[in-house]
Amino acid sequence: MVRYWLHVADCDECDPEKGIISFKERWKDTLSKVGNGDQVIIYLTRKSEFAGLGTVIDGYSLDERDADNPYKLLLKSVKVKPVKAKSLVPQLSFITNKKRWFVHFNKALYEIPKVDFEQIKTALIKSEKGSREAGEGDEVDVRIERLKREISTRAPTGIKGLDEILGGGFPVNSTILVTGGPGAGKTILGLQFLLHGVKNGENGVFISMDERPDDLRKEALKFGWDLTKYEKEGKLVIVDVSYPRSGLPSQEKYQIDMPFTLDNIVRTVYEIISDIDGKRVVIDSLPAFGLHFEDEAEVRIAIHRLNNLLLSSGCTSIITSEIIPGNIGISRFGVEEFIARGIVLVEIYREGKEYKRAMTILKMRETDYDLRRFAFIIGKTGLEVLPHKVVFFDEAARLL
Length: 400
Ligand SMILES: Nc1ncnc2c1ncn2[C@@H]1O[C@H](COP(=O)(O)OP(=O)(O)OP(=O)(O)O)[C@@H](O)[C@H]1O
Ligand SMILES: [Mg+2]
What we know:
Elements: E1 4-9, E2 20-23, H1 28-31, E3 39-44, E4 49-62, E5 71-78, E6 83-84, H2 85-88, E7 109-111, H3 114-133, H4 139-151, E8 154-155, H5 162-166, E9 170-171, E10 175-180, H6 186-199, E11 203-208, H7 213-221, H8 227-232, E12 236-240, H9 242-246, H10 262-276, E13 278-284, H11 286-290, H12 296-312, E14 316-321, H13 336-339, E15 342-351, E16 354-364, E17 373-379, E18 382-390, E19 398-399
Parallel strand pairs: 1-3, 10-14, 10-15, 11-12, 11-13, 13-14
Antiparallel strand pairs: 1-7, 2-5, 3-4, 4-5, 4-6, 8-9, 15-16, 15-19, 16-17, 17-18
This protein binds adenosine-5'-triphosphate and magnesium ion.
């Protein structure tokens, strides 16, 4: 019996037409149910669109050279043109939550009813036919044009000097990891990025794991940022996770229900993003987030799922983390750098008797960035990067 599957891909580069789809170890059980002749539709999380269609030609196979995604499904793919998922939501029966339809796209592989499959398939084929008839010309050109458009879409941080280095800001709809030692400026950077959005029509959600919202509001006021005002206007939400974490009751309107499970977090974050139409999210910080889970494998799953949700809801997000002395990776769980489309490192170092700050862009997709350390300051109005002041220091001078 032919079965119908939906594959949700969260990779940036995967090409739905290539005919090979990859899965992590934990999908083995589901994959064992997939047989030759089964039909697969590919959904791309980053774009929130159905983008591929194919027939399974050779069950699943194991590729031990690919440690991250060892299981492969080979597809005979059909040429299609992507279709935005949102346009099909009303007709699809497996999407029961029509308002928060994107919550249904959070598993790498699952079976969908034939009738839904056929609807998506028809739309994909029609879309491809339509574009051919409209004479969209050379497909390569179309793809390059699309990439160019994406590159030019930036989420400005509002941090003087940083937008200059980044060519306008962070790439929109991406997750950026801001990492560094204690007191380096991670929280302030996140807040500043969020507020810049809020002031320019992009509502923001700040998930505070470390600091109590009241402390955050007070600290922000020192920079002249009146968080309460934006909260009252419904443009900003601070989610209190610091109180519940300590076991104390919180007076805050927004908090994550206990027990602190992945499902609760994901549900709450999603509800808030949908309620205020959030476009920017800051999770401060991931190490504090990780404390709630039994082991690191669980943390990894949580980070992946949270990241998928942020991307599929179209947000540009910052996750803060901390560098660990002597660790080769630059983040706490060793996965953040893989999910993040950009990494910003903030450091404090010693120069003579003074402590100074430096910022390095370690990775930034779609950006021609400079891999140098730039001086930055925390001044009266927040962070300011000095793009013309490149700094050098020995590891021994770094304060952790
Ligand atoms: N109003 C202010 N003016 C100048 N500097 C400030 C001001 N408020 C805080 N700072 C500096 O910013 C630092 C804290 O920044 P921030 O809270 O963003 O750091 P962090 O990297 O998030 O630290 P942690 O790892 O402890 O969470 C303080 O150590 C202080 O030196
Ligand atoms: Mg902090």
